[in-house]
Amino acid sequence: MTSTDAAVPDTIGVGLISVGWMGRLHSRAYRALPDHFPELGVHPRLVVAADPIEAARDQAVTRLGYERAVADYHEVLADPAVDVVSICSPNFLHREMAVAAAEAGKPFWIEKPMGRYASDSREIHEAVQRAGVITSVGFNYRHAPAIERARELVRSGRLGRITNVRGSLLADYSSDPAAPLTWRFERERAGSGVLGDLLSHGLDLAQYVVGRIASVSALAETFIQERPKPAAGIVDRSAAATGVLGRVENEDYAALLFRFEDGAVGTMDSSRVMRGPHAEYTLEIYGTKGSVRWDFQRLNELEVYLDGQEVDGYATHYVAAGDGEFARFQPGAGTAMGYDDLKTIEAAQFIASVRRGEQLAPSVADGLAAASIVEAAEASLADGAWHDVARVDGPLTYAAATPVL
């Protein structure tokens, strides 16, 4: 970091690892910080991006605005001008890159699932604890203003004692059986299927709004058991495939029963092969005095029922100033925020955490907490029994006060 005042840096050097869709999104989020979060006093400098694909490196410079691009991510970690790093690579590279970033003393923002398995996530968490670096994990749905309002209603007691939670994360991104067998369908490179890819988001939301999930029972199924193998070197699911079939090694669908530490119960299911839903990610919280319901496809609305309200049934609350960080993006209720805005909030929490030396953003401990639920679910799939979720030490921000930036 550089500044005329060493205590208040105004330029922060950004390094990016992997220039795919998410890498581009991280880059846009950094660039948006001076506009939406001017009080951070930060002017991101996009220093260097790493990607083994030449076309991606060219894009990093010509489209995203990085000063240079390299093939080897180690060059990003070794660059003294890089203050923070975004890790947007495929799952099977996360552990290696995150551990290397921690050992290099670089604060990093990593996408989820943090590792292929809970063991990967534990190694990352342990490396971060040893190094003492600030981190952020891409649990972007937390930052929806409607979710922040729901959390406030729950934590303030307005819904009474929470009795049960329902969640569902239904998508169609793998519903075409002719789509190629990319790394996402391989245990060695992806780990679990929809459990880590989608359900980890829902489980983090449930813990962020309600509290710790203590035990779980699960079922899962793979509905499309074979897919055509992709051409050599192809990793994108939209790419053309060969006619040779290969076996899908992880689950298309999963459903969980779980118990919260405070006694509430919950259900959550997820699919990547649904016909109809595109990104139908829902969370419903029921209490003794009311309930709330949210659907990502209606990002800026929260259905609210409270005992004693004038009209019986659900009322639609349109998020507005006072709900999360909404006022930074739109002037009033009814004008919608979007997905990219949630990542900008995530970037702001990460950079604020780095500048203050305080973990405000979702941490690798939060990432391990979600992975630990997935681990317990996979144990349940193996033996059909309920399994306790391993406890996680560290800065669990899902249990902390809502960050003030």
TrEMBL record:
**Annotated ranges, domain GFO/IDH/MocA-like oxidoreductase:** 148-293
One Pfam entry name = GFO_IDH_MocA
Q: Which UniProt keywords apply?
A: NAD, Oxidoreductase
The Gfo/Idh/MocA-like oxidoreductase N-terminal domain sits at: 13-139
Protein name, entry field = Gfo/Idh/MocA family oxidoreductase
